[in-house]
Amino acid sequence: MANASSGVAVSDDCKLKFQELQRKKAFRFIVFKIDDKVQHITVEKCGGPDATYEEFAAALPENDCRYGVYDFDFTAEDGEINCQKSKIFFIAWSPSISRVRSKMIYASSKDKFKRELSGIHYELQATDPTEMDLEVIKERAK
């Protein structure tokens, strides 16, 4: 179904891949793009379960917008016990040098798309790599 504010629909593959990331840990990250020709959000790239955060960041183009989902694993200290935890981050990547039209379409489609992906823990809006640095992710996940 198309997004009322932008006219962009979400492909079923986006939801299926997200569920595989969330439930089966099949992926570490997913990068989504809006296909202008068919007005659909599609899966552009998936990183395997052993992919690094650096690989995720490198999968985002420096001059165009994307949505990204990253499954961040970390160890939390709970008293004297260390617990393995996982938090899913939704990153709206909108570099300042991208086209204005692209920024507008991604911004107007973001909320509906994010609702389609049930289970997001945190959201980041980034216009340059420093706003989504791994240290930012670690700090938010605490």
Automatic annotation (TrEMBL):
GO biological process: actin filament depolymerization
Keyword set, alphabetical order: Actin-binding
Record-linked Pfam families: Cofilin_ADF
Residue span(s) of domain ADF-H: 7-142
InterPro entries: ADF-H, ADF-H/Gelsolin-like_dom_sf, ADF/Cofilin
UniProt cross-references to SUPFAM superfamilies, sorted A to Z: Actin depolymerizing proteins (SSF55753)
Molecular function terms, GO-annotated: actin filament binding
Alphabetized SMART domains for the sequence: ADF
Any one GO cellular component localisation term in the record: actin cytoskeleton
Family recorded in the similarity comment: Belongs to the actin-binding proteins ADF family.
PANTHER family: COFILIN-RELATED
Stated name of the protein: ADF-H domain-containing protein
Source taxonomy: Eukaryota, Viridiplantae, Streptophyta, Embryophyta, Bryophyta
